[in-house]
Write a structure and sequence with these properties.
This protein is α/β, with parallel strands linked by helices. The protein is about 45% helix and about 10% strand. Helix 5 runs parallel beside helix 6.
Length: about 160
């Protein structure tokens, strides 16, 4: 839930991720062919050039990135179950709880082996609403709450 965010305008302005990925892969392949650096990490002895891989338990998938599947076909439960099957251990919640309370969502996530590391949350209207969001985040086991976007030029909105 992003209050004040014009998601459709943001999507129109953003670069299509698939085009970006295709272009990036094509550029990398071209560089590799041109320089003869086509060896994989395994062929190169598994070196990460001074970087350590991110530990699996620190990776979260942002559910906003799969919003079409959550809201349409195959749906929320099936999408999250699939993410668990393919190895995502954590998610950043977005778009609400899909008809569940925080406690019910926690039971569902625990049942499929996914943890909620964080969530996208809008600015709350008052202190009581903020306390409820914090309580929900605790119930879900989250460590973070993120306000992903605030579309306002009013100082009071930013202070709130």
């Amino acid at each position: 839930m992003c209050y004040g965010h014009d998601g459709h305008a943001a999507l129109r302005q953003s670069l299509d991720r698939r085009d970006l990925l295709r272009g990036s892969l094509a550029a990398l392949a071209g560089i590799g062919l041109a320089t003869g650096l086509g060896a994989t990490a395994a062929q190169a002895g598994g070196h990460h050039h001074g970087r350590r891989p991110v530990p699996k338990e620190l990776i979260s998938l942002q559910l906003w990135t799969v919003r079409d599947a959550l809201n349409g076909s195959p749906g929320y439960d099936a999408t999250l179950a699939h993410l668990a099957r393919i190895g995502y251990p954590r998610v950043e919640l977005a778009l609400g709880y899909f008809g569940r309370t925080a406690r019910e969502l926690r039971r569902f996530l625990d049942g499929i082996g996914i943890k909620a590391s964080s969530s996208h949350d809008g600015i709350t209207a008052d202190a009581a609403a903020l306390e409820q969001k914090i309580a929900n985040a605790r119930t879900l086991g989250q460590r973070f709450m993120v306000v992903p976007y605030l579309n306002s030029d009013r100082e009071d909105d930013w202070k709130r």
